[in-house]
Amino acid sequence: MPVYNPPLRDMQFVMHEVLGITDDFKAMPRHAEVDADTVNAVLEEGGKFAREVLLPLNRVGDEEGCKLDRETHEVKTPTGFKAAYAQYVEGGWPSLSADPAYGGQGLPIVVNQAFYEMLNSANQAWTMYPGLTHGAYECLHAHGTDAQKAMYLPKLTSGEWTGTMCLTEPHCGTDLGLLRTKAEPQADGTYKITGNKIFISAGEHDFVPNIVHLVLARLPDAPPGSKGISLFIVPKFLVNPDGSLGARNGIHCGGLEHKMGIHGNATCQMVLDGAVGTMVGQPNKGLQAMFVMMNAARIGVGMQSLGLTEVAFQNALAYAKDRIQSRSLTGPKHKDQPADSILVHPDVRKMLLTAKAYAEGGRALALYCALLLDREFHHPDEKVRQDSAELVALLTPIVKAFITDNAWTATSSCMQVFGGHGFIREWGMEQYVRDARINMIYEGTNTIQSLDLLGRKVLGNQGASLKKFGRLIAALVEEAQGDEDMAEFINPLAKLGQQMTQFTGEIGYKALENADEVGAAAVDYLRVAGHLVFGYFWARMAKVALQKIAEGNRDPFYQAKLQTARFYFAKLFPETASLMVTARAGSAVLMETEAVFA
Ligand SMILES: Cc1cc2nc3c(=O)[nH]c(=O)nc-3n(C[C@H](O)[C@H](O)[C@H](O)COP(=O)(O)OP(=O)(O)OC[C@H]3O[C@@H](n4cnc5c(N)ncnc54)[C@H](O)[C@@H]3O)c2cc1C
Questions:
Q1: Burial of 264 (0-12, 13-18, 19+ CB in 10 A)
Q2: C-alpha to C-alpha distance for 350 and 333, rounded to whole angstroms
Q3: Most-buried pick from 195, 400, 417, 441 (CB within 10 A)?
Q4: In terms of Cα–Cα distance, which of 416, 441, 413, 449 is closest to 309?
Q5: CA-CA-CA-CA torsion for 277, 145, 85, 58, nearest 10 degrees?
Q6: SS3 (DSSP) at 213
Q7: Exactly one of 169, 204, 443, 517 is catalytic; which is it?
Q8: DSSP E strand stretches across 257-332
């Protein structure tokens, strides 16, 4: 069975030594009392839960999958999943960062995100059940009426009920404007909802007595397209005014998808047959309300891939240390053995370092984004709140797409470290590759994330948000001026920062003539932007490590950090040069290809 050691040391490094999160907390009345010891203690316990309770269920979930009873429409989750959820609720984990007004513990989001990374490392399929609940909670918290909040938020906060997001239909995935599910207003102010949803994660399961579905549907007089979509709460069981469960609602699971990975999570076809729903937010403004859930989920998907990258790395490293095969090119290193450990081979190291650099860079970025969310929601200064919201909007597609693309590379590289043993089931590595693949697809494919970044978040505001991030880079470059040890990190970062302005401007200019130029460049552009952001965090991490080493600190952690930073800038970051070339190749090579597709 794969091993997993929660990366608490690295989390502490990022949170306390790089980001200085408790300095931020001091400025926020909600979190002023949260100190480093509290954060560390919560994560230590969270890590134990992940490793001891969830990790042993990862393989079970993959092998057993979920089972639908076609008579009752109930779904049975794999052995041990339900009991683990009961333990999760018992431990108070669902409420970690939820609003105390609804029974939450009110801890910072950054703590919850770090906790979620560990849950995902241990068992992504299981983690999706409570993970989606967080999104439903956020959406209702932001857009629900007082009555809706009072009815649903305490139960979602405690974990007594779970949530889902029901967007996708057989003929409509990316383009939600095509959706057909109908909502007919009733005399009592509720709506009767009819339609078919597919691919609904955690749409039906046996963890809890009630499931709160957030469903997108169309009113009879709605305008066509995405301007005519409304959002509804559709509970599995109707809820009486006193909070007790009433009649079974007209929504059920009609089938389970058979899929490549995350077998332990129920991916459901949901049938709505006159189900009773109540509207969330304004008529025809459902997509805007749902975006709260989608943005939370996009960062959540980044955390899924971060978790998989970390656990794949840990297992590949342990294997590489043990596995002996061939001799080092520079002569035997383990003379007492018939061959050297595969760790002597440069390319094996490259595969391991790739995963480590992506995991640690991803952790720094993801935790920084979570801290931005804490600032956005709880900082007393309006300007700080606005700036944080703008930055998190810019970085969300990067968290989603860059971290998930990197995880695909990283889990595949880690499988490669095992040779043929990675491809067979015994070691668990092929499951990580299979599980990681969906993260590039759902919650808006990575192409859609790239279009969101380049089209909306960058060109849509004439690069203003990107310039804001650019100022952070400029400040770091300025601080490191004259520091020779930092030059190998700062110089490439500063150069890319400068190139980015012209690169973005060129695409924007071409797009004025031909909108396909955005679509042709977007995926390459997001990878360049991803490296710009990762480069910034790797430079910050290298700076802290250099300082510690200069102070005489002998903890090998700092040497490892520095060596990984060096690897990142030497072997991964330079792909930005070729990506800028391919992005500049323009749309004609893609669009003037009629003969190919005839
Ligand atoms: C396991 C699993 C779990 C899921 N969970 C949920 C869930 O809980 N709730 C939910 O509502 N949905 C869920 N989904 C659905 C998921 O979000 C969609 O599959 C995804 O959004 C893509 O939609 P699609 O599959 O219809 O692909 P399509 O939209 O048909 O896309 C096909 C291809 O065309 C590309 N494409 C489409 N439009 C554009 C464009 N404008 N520009 C460039 N390229 C484009 C896409 O990038 C993709 O490569 C889940 C899916 C899976 C497989």
A1: buried
A2: 18
A3: 400
A4: 413
A5: 80
A6: strand
A7: 443
A8: 267-280
Q: What residues are in contact with ligand 1 under a 6 Å CB criterion?
A: 165-168, 173-174, 199-201, 259, 267, 438, 441-445, 447-448, 451, 519
The pick from 215, 441, 454 for probing ligand 1's pocket by mutation, whose C-beta has the most ligand atoms within 8 angstroms, reads 441
> Ligand 1, atom 31: nearest CA belongs to which residue?
174
Strands, DSSP E only, in 218-266?
230-235, 237-239, 245-248, 251-256
Q: Where are the alpha helices (DSSP H) in 3-95?
A: 8-12, 21-26, 36-48, 55-64, 81-90
Residue range 368-384, pLDDT digits in tens:
999 999 999 999 999 99
Q: How far is CA 568 from the centre of its chain?
A: 21
The per-residue pLDDT for range 183-216, each reduced to its tens digit, is 999 999 999 999 999 999 999 999 999 999 999 9
| Torsion of Cα atoms, 349 then 351 then 355 then 361, to 10° | 70
Q: How far lies 458's CA from each of 328, 507, 515, 530, in Å?
A: 48, 11, 15, 13
Does the annotation count 443 as an active-site position? yes
Residue 7: C-alpha distances to residues 10, 122, 547 (Å): 6, 12, 22
Ligand 1 centre and the CA of 442: distance in Å?
A: 6
What number of other Cβ atoms are within 10 A of residue 425's Cβ? 11
Give the mean pLDDT of 99-125. 97
**537 alpha carbon, distance to own chain's centre:** 18
* Residue 209 near residue 194, CB atoms below 8 Å: no
